[in-house]
């Protein structure tokens, strides 16, 4: 593993051995719905509360991951997971049943990519051969925790985002596959001074811009070196601010740029600015994007996952929202 200041190059190859995704009904009926492994017909997923529903959804994604790879729990060296519930309760409850060494993680909506980077470092350091990563979010649980219960008819501004009900799981390891994770970059916390939880796209955009600019500078690459540069989840309002910040530094991203929060839903689904949540980037990347790579429609993808590191308490105290953006590069290997 080579560290060029902040960019990590994985010298021991790290491959995507398998992935699994599970989503809620709105996500399943969106433009990417056909690319998910399992779509639950209701938000409760057959359970009695939101947290248990999210746990079941994540377990479903993990089950698809393990079954497709024909692995059992005892073949895993490490489990890295995080979610948006208080103290990552959902992830801890899943780890309780897996009987695998567990690292709990949190970078809000950037958790999935943080997990991948940490897993890659473990594999490169020789401490693990197969690492399972998972991240999830649920609109019912997140609305109750961060805003208001979904039964409460609250008017939201157009810049607000809709929490994705979804879970993504991935097994990273040394076994060669068609998708390799070649580089990673741990983001810095950046605070623009925004304290409005309905302006998360604007709050996170500077962190995403800083991560991309740092990556391009340290690796001496250009945006055109990638088939796709993907953020998650700035949504529509944040994506425009992100592109504006890049233009101010002489960097243009347009045709080969997209955002997970924008891609997740159709324009007729009434989701305001787009999607967000720890399950948004995980399901879009591990589902749709990996499908595109395997189909040879994409060969090199830079994923920049963004997270707003606030809590219900800091919002009530009108504190500003610190944000972060982690990045990884996924590349197609073979013909």
UniProtKB/TrEMBL annotation:
It holds the Pfam family SpoVAD. InterPro entries: SpoVAD (IPR010894), SpoVAD_sf (IPR038369), Thiolase-like (IPR016039). One of its GO terms (molecular function) is acyltransferase activity. SUPFAM superfamilies: Thiolase-like. This is Stage V sporulation protein AD.
């Amino acid at each position: 593993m080579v560290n060029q200041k902040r960019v990590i190059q994985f010298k021991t190859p790290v491959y995507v051995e398998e992935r699994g995704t599970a989503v809620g009904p709105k996500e399943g009926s969106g433009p990417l719905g056909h690319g998910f492994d399992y779509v639950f017909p209701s938000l409760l997923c057959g359970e009695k509360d939101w947290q248990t529903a999210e746990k079941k959804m994540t377990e479903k994604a993990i089950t698809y991951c393990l079954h497709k790879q024909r692995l059992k729990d005892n073949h895993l060296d490490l489990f890295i997971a995080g979610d948006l519930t208080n103290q990552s309760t959902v992830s801890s409850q899943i780890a309780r049943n897996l009987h695998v060494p567990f690292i709990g993680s949190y970078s809000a909506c950037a958790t999935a990519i943080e997990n991948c980077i940490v897993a890659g470092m473990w594999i490169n350091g020789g401490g693990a051969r197969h690492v399972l990563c998972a991240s999830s979010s649920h609109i019912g649980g997140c609305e109750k925790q961060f805003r208001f219960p979904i039964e409460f008819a609250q008017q939201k501004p157009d810049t607000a985002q809709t929490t994705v009900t979804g879970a993504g799981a991935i097994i990273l390891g040394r076994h060669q596959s068609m998708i390799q994770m070649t580089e990673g970059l741990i983001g810095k916390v950046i605070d623009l001074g925004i304290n409005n939880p309905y302006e998360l796209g604007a709050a996170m955009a500077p962190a995403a811009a800083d991560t991309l600019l740092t990556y391009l500078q340290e690796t001496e690459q250009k945006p055109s070196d990638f088939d796709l540069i993907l953020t998650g989840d700035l949504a529509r309002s944040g994506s425009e601010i992100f592109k504006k910040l890049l233009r101010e530094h002489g960097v243009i991203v347009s045709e080969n740029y997209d955002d997970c929060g924008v891609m997740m839903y159709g324009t007729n689904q009434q989701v305001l600015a787009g999607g967000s949540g720890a399950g948004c980037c995980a399901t879009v990347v591990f589902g749709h994007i990996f499908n595109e790579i395997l189909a040879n429609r994409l060969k090199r993808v830079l994923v920049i996952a963004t997270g707003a590191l606030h809590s219900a308490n800091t919002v009530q105290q009108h504190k500003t929202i610190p944000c972060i953006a982690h990045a990884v590069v996924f590349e197609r290997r073979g013909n």
